[in-house]
Amino acid sequence: MGKEVYTDLSIISSKIFLRIAGAWIAMNSAEEFRRKISLLNVAIVATYSLSVNTMNIHYFWGNDISYCVYCFCNILCVTLALSKVTVLRIRRFELADVVAYAEKHFWHYNYDAQEQLYFAQCQGLCKFLIYFVFIIPVFVLFSYVVTPILSNVGLNKSERLLIFEVRSSWPLRETPYYEILFTWQAIVVFVLFVAYICPDVFLCVLNIHVICQFRIVQYKMLHFWNSDVKDTDTVRYSAQCSVALKKCIQQHQSLIEFCEKLEHVFSYTVLFHMVIFSLLMGFDCYEIILSDASTSRRLLFVFHVLGSFIHLMIFTYTCHGLMEESTNIITTIYFGSWNTLPMDKIGRSLRSDVKMIMTRSLKPCRLTAGGFFPVSLETFTGLASSTFSYFTLLRESFMRNEG
After folding, report:
1. Is 384 exposed, middle or buried (0-12, 13-18, 19+ CB in 10 A)?
2. In whole angstroms, how large is the CA radius of gyration of the chain?
3. pLDDT at residue 210, as a whole number
4. How far is CA 247 from CA 204, 244, 253, 258, in A?
5. What count of other Cβ atoms lies within 10 Å of the Cβ of residue 365?
6. pTM to 2 decimal places
7. Distance (Å, whole) CA 85 – CA 66
């Protein structure tokens, strides 16, 4: 492989997000110290957010159900972010192996002309993913900050609202306490947002690169039969095809092992996201349609729903692509020119290897939600359906209480 390590915006951004969340791999004592500081920061802001939102639910219960739902959605988001960071912290050594393998076998420049085309497509998909991360969710963050600002228009300074309401005997609505607390809460939202999305963003980047590698393997399996010595030396041609096929088999096996490592590292982060997603979206839909929340808060939840569904769609799309490209090996190897080889010892051995590849490819490489079910585009449609089921249940429950 090439000595020069490849990097781009998607890889750099993923590493920065994971460092902010304290989930990146420490290579020396200085990085370990910074990682511990980041973890402590995440723990502090998560504890603050959970405590404030829990107290607000206790205070507003029975008086403002809409605000209670808003606080409960915040608690679900914080819980999901903490669970993801905790899993990556527990699996940190396995994550280090995944990153080391990707840097050695994926992120380099040692590709031929056709392989560079596949890699360019991979770069384009990764850039699109990062553009989504930088644009759509920013509107959610912006909405969290702008909602209290818009609500403060026309109010006295003593009635100014915060991102999270805080009950205290201190004069928190007065300058400069209000500005300091508002800035702190904005930082809390940003840190929790990064912890929420960073594992999924990095997993999507890895999925896209694995899809690219599977396409490269398919290209090699389809074209290594074409040799200049085919018409002059049949034995030599068969031997070269056998050697080339064995290299493809080794690369195929290494990709399968890499997918198993991804499954081991990220399966529980996927599970937590799938479990909480439908419930969270159900409450969001309630806030948009049924609650008596302000227009600015409704807009916040609109951006949250759109961003979450696009986030899930991109994530399930990359997982679905992983399954498809790993099974496309069967079609690719079938259309190869292995049937033109002579029926000598090398030819029979090569045919046996081809059957073994096709048999192994019948079982697709996939990511699962904690081992319970594979993640694919069907998962996206199933979660969307369950979201509307939760919303219907909430609507009927609140309508019954009002009646």
Report:
1. middle
2. 26
3. 92
4. 27, 5, 10, 17
5. 24
6. 0.85
7. 29
Would you call 147 helix, strand, or coil by DSSP?
helix
Dihedral sign (CA 148, 183, 137, 72): negative
**Average pLDDT per consecutive 10 residues, the chain (403 residues; last block may be shorter):** 65 86 83 87 90 86 80 88 90 89 84 85 84 69 74 69 74 78 85 86 90 88 63 70 82 90 91 85 78 74 81 87 88 74 74 81 86 86 78 68 57
Q: Is 62 left (phi over 0), alpha (psi -120 to 50) or beta?
A: left
DSSP conformation class of 110 = -
Beta-bridge partners for 374:
368
Omega cis (within 30) before 342: no
Q: Residue 318: CB partners within 8 Å, gap ≥ 6? A: 203, 204, 207, 208, 211
CB 350 within 8 A of CB 238: yes
Give the DSSP H or E segment for 173.
Answer: none
Task: Collect all residues with Cβ–Cβ distance below 8 Å to 292 and sequence separation of at least 6.
Answer: 66
Between the alpha carbon of residue 325 and those of residues 47, 214, 354, the distances in Å are 42, 6, 17
Whole-angstrom Cα distance, residue 50 to residue 37? 20
E-strand ranges in 277-403 read none
With vertex at residue 371, the alpha carbon angle to CA 16 and CA 42, rounded to the nearest 5 degrees, is: 30
CA distances from 257 to 25, 131, 253, 365 (A): 21, 30, 6, 9
Give me the helix-helix angle, 177-223 and 92-105, nearest 10°: 50
Cα–Cα nearest to 194, from 16, 65, 318, 26? 16
- The token pair at 235 is 């034995």
Q: Say if CB 107 and CB 6 are below 8 A apart.
A: yes
Angle of the 92-105 helix axis to the 234-289 helix axis, nearest 10:
130
**Alpha-carbon dihedral angle through residues 133, 135, 139, 141, given to the nearest 10 degrees:** 40
Q: Give Cβ neighbours of residue 2 (< 8 Å, ≥ 6 apart).
A: 108, 109, 110
